[in-house]
Specification:
single chain; alpha/beta; Quinone Oxidoreductase, Chain A, domain 1; Rossmann fold; 2 domains; 7-stranded mixed β-sheet; 11 helices; 15 strands; 31% helix; 25% strand; globular; oxidoreductase; GroES-like_sf; NAD(P)-bd_dom_sf; ADH-like_N; NADP
Length: 327
Amino acid sequence: MRALLFDQPAADTSTTRVGEVATPEPGPGEVAIDVRAAGVNFIDVMARRGDAGYATGWPFVPGLEVAGTVRSLGAGVSGPAVGTPVAAFTATGGLADVAVVRGELVVEIPAGLSFEQAAVAPGTLTTAALLLGPTGRLREGDSVLVHSAAGGVGQALASLARLHGAGLLLGTVGGAGRAAAAEKAGYDAVVVRGDGIVDRVRELTDGRGVDLILDPQGTDWIETDLELVAAGGRIVLFGNAGGTPLASLPAAGRLFGGNAAIGGFSIRGYAAKAPWMVAEALSEVLQRLSRGELQVEPTVVDGLENAPEAQQALADGRGEGKYVVRL
C-alpha cells in the first residue's frame, strides 16, 4: 500500500515522500480501515521535526485521524461490520491507504456525513471536546481565551465552546493577518500576541481575567497566562507549537496566591489510558456534525502527494482552519 513517510527529522518537506509499505493487518482487539480521508494536524509537523515523543522510529508514517470503511476485524472484535463507514483516532499511521487502530477508538459515521467532514472529527473536534469537557471543565458562562485561535483546533474550540454555554470568547493569533479567520470562527475579540496583550484582555474582561485559558504554545506564554487567569481559573497546556524546550512550571506559591490551576492535555494520553473517553467525545462531535450544530469547511487536498505542502503550511503559520487529504 502507499503511505506518507518521514525518512528522518527535518524542518521542511525535504525528507518527506510517498512510498510503498506493507499493508498492516489487525491484531487482537484492532480494526483495519480502508482510508478515504485523513486529517492533517500540527502534530504531524512536530513528529517531522523530531520533537521528543512523537515519531516512534524512522521512516515514520504520520496521521492521527481518519475516515473510511472497515476493511477487516482482528480477533475479539465484533464490529462494526466490514464495509461500515467509520471514523477513528489513529495516533499514528493515518496518512496511508490502510490504517490499523484499536477497536475502542472506532466510531460509525452518521448518515449524511462525507468522509472529508468526518475526518475532521477524531483529532481536531475530539481534541476540542475533551479540552472543554473533562480537562478544562468549562462551566456555563465561563470566559475562555484560546491561543492560536485561527488554527483548526482553535476554530473548533470556538464553535464547541458556544454549544457548551461559554460566555466571552477571546482568541489570540501570531499575526494580524490571521485575525479575520479567528473572528469568522466566532471569537468575540481577537488579540495579536505580543506587547499589550495583558492590558487588552484585562480591558475586555473588565479587569476580572479569564476563567479558562487553552494554550498550545508550550510554556512560552505561561507567565502571560498567569497574569490573565481569573481567580479560580484554569490554564490548560495542550501542545508545543514552537518546538522549543519546555520550561519548568511556576512555583506552587504562585498558584496558591493566584487561586489558579495549570493542567496538561494529550489526546494520545487519553487514547492510551481512557479510550472510552475519546470514543464518547468522537461520537458526540460526529452527531453534532450530522445535526448541523457544528459546521466544518475543511480545505481538501487530493492525494497523499499533496499532504506535505499542507503540513508545511501549518509549519510556516500560513495554514488557516483544517486540512484534509482525500485518498
